[in-house]
Design brief:
The protein starts with a strand and ends with a strand. The strands form 3 sheets. The protein has a 5-stranded mixed sheet with strand order 4-6-7-9-8. The protein has a two-stranded antiparallel sheet with strand order 1-2. The chain is α+β, with helices and mostly antiparallel strands and 262 residues long. The longest helix has 36 residues. The structure holds adenosine-5'-diphosphate. The site of adenosine-5'-diphosphate (ADP) has 21 residues, from helix 5 and helix 7.
Amino acid sequence: ERVYRVTASAVGRGTGLFVLAFKDQSEARRIDRMRADFIANASHELRTPLASIAGFVETLRGPARNDPNARDQFLQIMQNQTGRMARLIDDLLSLSRLEMKPYLKPGVRVDLRQTVDAVIASLGPLAGETGVVVERDFGDGSFEVHGDRDELFQVFQNLLENACKYGQSGGRVQVTMRRVGQGSEAELEVTVRDFGPGIPEEHIPRVTERFYRVDVETSRAQKGTGLGLSIVKHILTRHGARLSIRSKLGEGSAFTVHFPIA
Ligand code: ADP
C-alpha cells in the first residue's frame, strides 16, 4: 500500500494549467506506525509486571496481612517483577541511545579478541548459574575492526548470554573467530554456538524483531525482554556488519557476526 501527498499549483496566471506533485509518504507512514507499535508494546511489557506488583501489594495489605508464608512468597514475586522492569528499561534506554546518535564516530580500532574475552570474563555469574562452559577458538592474525567498543561489547554480551540461557542444556558454548574470503569478499567472522534446543525454523527470521520471543517452554522460562537481538542487529548495521543465524532443533544454534574487512 503506498501513500502519496498531492499538491497542485497553478502554472502562470489565468492559463488554466496546473502542475500536480506527488510525494511518496509511504516510508514516513511506515516509520510512524512502527514507532506507535513500539510504544504500545513497550507500555504493555511494563504494565504487565506493574499490574502484578500492584495486585500483590493489595493482597499483602488485605487478606495476606498476617500470613508470613504468603508474605515471603509475594515479596519474592514482586522482586522478580521489579527485576523484569529494570531489564526492560535498560534495553529501552540502549535502543534510544542508539537512535539518538544514528552514526558512529569514525576511527576507533577495536580488538575483537579483547572484547570477546572481556565479555566471557563478565559472564562469570551467569555461566556459574547455568553450569555452561565457554570454549574459545580464536584463529591467528589480527581481529581488529573500526567501531564503538561499548557497542561491540554489548553485541557479544547479548549473544553469549542468550547462548548460556537458552543453550544451557547443551552444557557448553563455543566462540570461534576466523577470517574468510578474499579481496573485497574478505570478512572477519565471529560465531557464538550453543548445543541447546535450537530455534524452530519458522521463527529464525523473526528473532531479531523487537519484543519477539519464541514461545517454547525453554525460552519463556528464561529472563528476557525480547529486545536483545534487535539491539544486536541495530548495532551491527551501524558497523556495516551483519548477523546470520543457523539453528537446528535438538542440535543447537549458531549466531555469526560478519564484519567486512575494508
Ligand atoms: P530475550 O533473550 O531478551 O528474550 P532476544 O532478542 O535476545 O530476547 O532473543 C529473542 C528470542 O530468540 C528469545 O526469547 C529466544 O526465544 C530466542 N533465542 C535467542 N537466542 C537463542 C538461542 N541461543 N537458542 C534458542 N533460542 C534463542
